[in-house]
Each structure stands twice: as structure tokens, then as C-alpha cells.
Amino acid sequence: MRSAPPFRRRCGHPITAAIACHVARAGGTVDELTRPLLHPDHEGGRHARHIALRSGQSRVLAYIGRVWASASAAVSSTTMLESRHHA
Fold first, then answer.
1. Are the CB atoms for 64 and 51 separated by under 8 Å?
2. Against a cut of 0.85, is the pTM above it?
3. What is the distance between the alpha carbons of residues 55 and 46, in angstroms, rounded to a whole number?
């Protein structure tokens, strides 16, 4: 059985992890991650909104903060490639 990549193991939800990594790679902030995750029209934020409904605003903000910290660490520890050729 294959294990999940290290970031995914820390985050627990692959869609949230992917969105967080995208925002981090684009040079965004935790606030720029939080807005779409909590926006009712953004399908990728379903997991975060479920946490907010179930456990409250402070709990979901803590969750997003942990996801952001993991995504930022994952992105900062990788090298940006300009193209497939550079890989």
C-alpha cells in the first residue's frame, strides 16, 4: 500500500491541500486562502465550510491556519521549474 505524500498526511483533505499549495505558490496569503474556502459558491471549500458549520468559526480558522502552514512549508521546500524541459 502506498502512503500519501507528506503534505497530504498533515492536511487530511486533498482538495484543501491543493488549493492551499496553489495560493502559496502564487505568493498569496492565508487571508487569500480563507476567502475562497469559506465562500459559499466555491466548491473547493466544502470541507472547510463543513468544519465551520459543525465546530464554529474559530475552529475552521485554526484548521485553515494549519493547512496554510503546511502548504507554505511544502512550497518553500521545493524548487520552481520553468518548464518540463528544466525538469
1. no
2. no
3. 14
